[in-house]
Amino acid sequence: MEIIGGEPRRRWSLEQKLAIVEATFQPGASVHGVARQAGANTGMVFSWRKQFRTQLGFPEEPKAAGFAQVMLAPPEAQRVEHSPGVVEVEFASGVRLKVFGAVEPDLAAAILGALTNKR
Fold it and tell me: Is residue 65 domain-resident?
């Protein structure tokens, strides 16, 4: 039989735990990086953070995710785009009217009304 032993279990003093936890709250620090540098398990350091954060004066993490207020802008007036082209109208008298390019519907109605004497 062969017994393979690992390293003996490390014991951390309260002062060491507090120093490690405080280091995780420094700007730019990560729990993983601090734990690796100290030779501690990352999960254990997270547990220490929960345990000692208020004792060190750090605010508690929010318990639930929140929502940001959303405000909708009023809808913009919709503009109808007219594609350029040709509109050709042939009247009963044989007269033809060709309009090239984009023409607003009101202008086209006014021209047709004037030509057909319908007002």
Answer: no
**Count of domains in the chain?**
2
Which residue range forms the structural domain that includes residue 20? 14-52
Residue whose C-alpha is closest to residue 109's, from 81, 89, 82: 89
Determine if residue 57 is left, alpha or beta; phi over 0 gives left, psi from -120 to 50 gives alpha, anything else beta: left
Length of the chain, please? 119
User: pTM above 0.85?
Assistant: no
Give a yes or no: residue 4 inside a domain: no
Alpha-carbon torsion angle 55, 58, 59, 64, nearest 10 = -100
Do the Cβ atoms of 49 and 23 come closer than 8 Å? no
Summarize pLDDT for 6-26 with one digit per residue, the tens.
667 788 899 999 999 989 988
Backbone angles phi, psi at 96, to 5 degrees: -115, 145
User: Is 5 domain-assigned?
Assistant: no
SS3 state of residue 98: strand
Position 76 in a domain: no
Which pair of structure tokens corresponds to residue 20?
Answer: 């490690």
